[in-house]
Write a structure and sequence with these properties.
Length: 220
């Protein structure tokens, strides 16, 4: 090989090394972007609270839905609200355990929420920092599904709704405290989609009373 060829081979090697390095930089950038937007580009993800088996003495049972459930999209998000609902099911026996069983059985395939509680216990269905389908507002920016923890209060005829309201206030206060939120971050399902929910609280004009229970629970 004469000198000319040696130069050409060296130049080609330099070009190949440069191309490989450039490809590596592009790949690293793509991986970084994918990891930043893997939560759907929805901003910061709120880190989860530590696990607990009770809230203010009310037993909390974790019965998380499988990650391949259509009701659990697995989208991580920032927590901005606690969204209050009522199950709308007045049947005797339609308590928190029954709703947990219903969701574990697949529910209606599309609706989901984070907690159901009754007059004596709380069931959790989806981790706090994952999207669930309860607010009827799709994935609207700053919406109830995207940023809310959905809490369902049972209205079963054989339950004590006054106690359920108290327990709901305790769980709400606990979640607000865990995630550095205040009473101003408590919402009704109604606020996001206009649905008449939580129905009995709304129709009895007891929303302010519920918020007062939350404030007292937070102060305790
Ligand atoms: Zn609702």
């Amino acid at each position: 090989m004469n000198r000319y060829w040696v130069m050409r081979v060296r130049r080609r090697r330099v070009m190949i090394v440069t191309a490989v390095a450039a490809a590596a930089v592009v790949l690293a950038a793509v991986i970084l972007l994918v990891s930043v937007f893997s939560n759907g580009g929805q901003g910061t993800v709120t880190p989860l609270r530590s696990p607990t088996d009770q809230v203010a003495g009310i037993p909390l049972y974790e019965s998380l839905l499988p990650t391949d459930s259509g009701c659990r999209p697995g989208t991580l998000r920032q927590i901005k609200y606690v969204v209050i609902h009522e199950t709308g099911n007045p049947a005797a026996g339609a308590d928190a355990a029954a709703h947990s069983e219903y969701l574990q059985g697949g529910g209606d395939g599309t609706t989901s929420w984070h907690y159901t509680l009754d007059d004596h216990c709380i069931y959790q269905h989806i981790p706090d920092n994952e999207v669930a389908w309860h607010a009827g507002d799709r994935l609207e920016q700053d919406g109830g599904n995207l940023n809310g923890i959905g809490v369902e209060l049972c209205v079963n005829a054989d339950g004590n709704f006054e106690q359920t309201m108290q327990n709901g206030a305790q769980l709400t206060a606990y979640l607000l405290r865990q995630y550095g939120l205040g009473v101003e971050n408590v919402r009704q399902h109604y606020d996001f989609s206009g649905k008449n929910c939580p129905q009995t609280i709304r129709e009895a004009g007891r929303w302010q009373e519920f918020l007062q229970l939350v404030r007292s629970a937070m102060a305790a």
